[in-house]
What we know:
The complex is a heterotrimer.
Chain A: H1 2-18, H2 24-38, E1 60-63, H3 73-77, E2 83-92, E3 102-113, H4 122-126, E4 132-135, E5 149-150, H5 152-157, H6 194-203, H7 206-210, H8 218-233, H9 237-242, H10 247-262, H11 266-275, H12 277-281, H13 296-299, H14 303-311, H15 315-318, H16 335-349, H17 353-369, H18 401-406
Antiparallel strand pairs in A: 1-4, 2-3, 3-5
Helix pairs in contact in A: 8-10, 16-17
Chain B: H1 4-18, E1 28-32, E2 44-50, E3 53-60, H2 68-71, H3 77-84, H4 92-107, H5 113-141, H6 146-166, E4 175-176, E5 179-180, H7 188-211, H8 214-220, H9 228-233, H10 239-243, H11 250-253, H12 274-298, E6 317-325, E7 328-336, E8 344-348, H13 350-356, H14 358-362, H15 367-376, H16 381-385
Antiparallel strand pairs in B: 1-2, 2-3, 4-5, 6-7, 7-8
Chain C: E1 2-7, E2 10-15, H1 16-49, H2 66-76, H3 87-104, H4 122-130, H5 133-143, H6 147-178, H7 183-189, H8 201-216, H9 228-231, H10 241-267, H11 278-281, H12 285-304, H13 312-340
Antiparallel strand pairs in C: 1-2
Helix pairs in contact in C: 1-2, 1-10, 1-12, 2-10, 3-4, 3-5, 3-10, 5-6, 6-7, 6-8, 6-13, 8-10, 8-13, 10-12
Amino acid sequence: MAVDERTAYEEMRLKKARKMGFGLGLLKGMAVTLKHLFKHNSVIQYPDERQDLSPRTRGVIALKEENCTVCMLCARECPDWCIYIDSHKETLPPKREGGRQRKRNVLDRFAIDYALCMYCGICVEVCPYDALFWSREFEYAEYDIRNLTHEKERLSDWMATVLPPPPLEEGALLPGAPEPELRDPTPPATTRPATATASAVETRPEQEATAPTGGQATPAEAPAAMTTETKEQGTPSEPAVEKPATPEASGVSAAGDIAELSDTSPAQTEAAQVERPVSDNSGVPSADTPEADQPHVAGGLSEKEVAQFQESPGPNVEVPHEAPHPVALERTEDPEAVYQQVLQEQKDKGSSPQVAEARAKVARVKAERGIKRGPTPMHVDKPVPSAPTKGQPAEPEPGGAPEAKDIEPDPGPVAPTDGEA
Amino acid sequence: MATTEDRFTETDDLTNQMSVENLATQEMVLNVGPQHPATHGVFRLLATIDGEILTDAEPVIGYMHRGYEKLVEARDYRQITNLVSRMDWLSGINNELPLALAIEQLMGLEVPPRAQYLRVILCEMNRILNHLMFFASFGAELGAITPTFYAFREREDIQRVMEDTTGGRMHFGFFRPGGLKEDVPRGFYASALAGVRQVIDRLPDYENLLVGNEIFKGRTIDVGVLDKQTAFNYGVSGPIARGSGIDMDVRKDEPYLVYDHFDWEVSTAPNGDCFDRFWVLVHEVVESAKIVEQAIEGIPSGPILGKVPRVVQIPEGEAYIRTENPLGELGFYLISDGDKKPYRMKIRTPSYNNVSCLPAVLRGTLVSDMIAILGSFFFVLGDIDR
Amino acid sequence: MGYEVNLPFLEFTFTAWQILIVKLLVILTVVPVGALAGGYALHKELGHLQHRLGPMYAGGFHGWAQTLADGIKFIYKEDIIPASADKRVFTWAPAAIFVPVLMLFLVIPIDRSLIVEDLDVGIFYLLAIGSVGVIGTLMAGWASANKYALIGAVRGAAQLIAYELPIVLTAAAVAMLAGTLSIVGIVEAQDWPFLLWPPGLGFALFLVFLIGAIAEMNLPPFDMPVAESEIITGAFTEYSGMRFIFAFFFAEMGHIVAFSGIATTLFLGGYRPIVPWGPLEHIPGIIWFMGKLFFMFFLIIWIRFTFPRLREDQLQKLAWKYLIPVSLVLVLATGAWVLYAPESIWP
Lengths: 421, 386, 347
């Protein structure tokens, strides 16, 4: 009955709308455009003004080199096969007297070809050691396509621009937190004024928003605090030395990226088990065990595990941290000086004035934002891409090896044309 | 000596010879596209015209064929999620949905309620984005380019919410079998509500600029009529079918996710012309906004990913999942042989069926009408060719 | 016939042909510069109507040099002539379009004495020259050997025939009101602009003239001959570089400015103040003229970017079924007004 009435009303409206008017509609249209003539417009004058992009923006992938264990997962999972990794093995003396000699992978080359990359983020998602991060920087267009292949130095430079993950919305469940009572999922009364919700959402104080998760919410916010702290102190290396899980790393794991960990391939799982004995012991279920069906919040890394992991990292992870990467922004170089210097460098190299100026401008912007200027070669000869299938498995143990063989030859990189209609 | 009668017949003959019917005219084949501003991409229409009247029209598609159905056979499910998001690039997250649903059905996964609500919110916001794009381009095709800019301004607010949430602007890659990639960032509810309300607040501007405009009415009313039966015969779905009076919406007919929790209407219009299709589009934006508001109001707390095994490996079996894409019914027919990759995946895209009825609609219209009809047959090239 | 310059520091006499050369030079520089300025105004107004800013960079201050930069870019572009085009006709068509636009400016009085040639049949000349350009459009469309260009050219010709009549009839009504065909005479006859007086009648004439003028300039909502999203700038599809800018951009801009000037002259009182009131008389005529011209320009652009485009048959219907009968009635009414309105109510 009510539906019929509504339908009848809709039909009436449509009939009314279809009736030809006498030019009043034209005048109304002119009023609309005239109204906009006097409104403040919403244009952002891009190079002068910049939009503050979201921390989750998939702009460029940053590499935290010391976290990388050359497990090759990213290269194998990449749909476009645009990650090139080279490594060699190093033998380390045994830790204890009479122990076995240990072997360790050393990263020689890590490059991402952004000309191929489809920005899906699978590599960031599968990385079990938090070595890859999204940064929101996007201004790395090049005059030469070869320069779009960022080598590991350049990828490491992007690390300085990585933001901590944003705090989560009210109602989000953090790992390890007790499952809160679900709100009644039945449809809300339609008579309730919608504006009430808006005001409720807007007026909710910050503390209250974190309330459902209690004290557990802090890990998500902690990295932000820590980063700012380090920024202010200007001693960026300090926290990073001590903890393998740097602010970003712990932030990412705590803020729910455990979900990503939990649905990676078995190879990765096994690798993770081997690499991270602590986590393994504390009950990370493998794919085969019945525990695998547990929800990720309960079965993944708990808060405690994260803490344990931070305290006692595996032997393989520990080593690279002797040379930590600066995390916080540091403004060591004067942008203008950088500009002049790069301009001069480029001129000496024989670049055309336009190119030189463009590069110098890029350098200045980067200096302003605190990105350290890496050795960006003018022309990198295209290196022979290392075939990802032939890459070494994560560990000498047979765990990861079969997976490596299982990879089927792909029909080639996919490059779907993206365009607006 | 010619009689009066003879003279009359002579004149008649002369008139006959000179009349339009007897003039020796030739039909001309006008090649619209593959590069033409009205075709939204590499769509080609071979129009046979007599003066300005189309006597025949033949859509030629396939310029952008990328072989998705074959590509997915060589990729694991996570990679496929990112791939299908590029099929219909205006509604990426709506494309990921049926894939996730199909996997969940085959694996018997439970999706937590919070994830279902968030999926609904994101899908509906994406629907609004898509519909705004088509209002904009429809206006531009009829010669009014100003609404385009207004629509893009509105889109930007919602686009921003989507970007804050998923990290992407067009290819979101946010749905996972069993739930979502990660939870939404703080401020999501407020900004999503604000963005959606903004669109609703500004709809009167579009009504004044387009719907209420006499020239717009003159260009669209009774132009390109697609009657109900033809629409059925060609398998037309989505706003175009609803504009022809077919009350069909997968969200209502076979509710998936939590669409049956909300109070909303399927908007239809009976006449099947360009105006009605546009009318349905505008009203779907209002309905989507209603759904978003209600979903944000009723969203439960909890996890966003269900009990998902570490490896998404689907047991042997097959499933057909259909969902309501902004442009119509999107179906994924997934056959698995127990591998980590699909054995076969048939994709039924809305645009493909929708454009197939173009010759039937276009015959007998004018060249200018052809542009209006192409604009009102909301299609995305990537969705046709995939 | 000569012109004597009697200034304290300058005293000589121009001969007629010298005056002609000077005037032509002035027109030849003023029109392209006016078109550039008009183009800039168009960009800015369009931007703000569409909630944007328009050009902001070229030249520094609010992108003032944008159209200049565009023009220079067009000069640098390669001039492509399609292989199967009729080369001679294709080459000359832009001239056939652009020269009549230049010639329109000869009889528009910017101030009482600032006019190239005050013809006795000025209004007749304007109407005649204003419609010559379509020959160029036809030449361009036919010579391009392109189906879209051909459709555009034919549409343009059909449109011209439909819209010449309302313009001519309204102009005739104006001439009747003024009692002269001379443009300066028409302006001088407007103590109150014809838009306001005779009340109602003048406004109706103005509306009909405006619709006709927009249609004749091929601007939206009557831009079917160029219809960007349908037949891709119609007759000019195959043009590029300098020829395109002369055939399309300069001609269009010049047309808008010229028709704004004509409407100003015929209906808004030209260089005379908008109401005959003492203090306003002291403002120089050139300022009045430019202000009114800018208003007309603004109005035309405003209409242009608000409305969708009509269909060709709807345009013909509108012209033949509504505008022409209406303008015939208006001519009758004007005649009645001139004959029977008592002298006392004339201001």
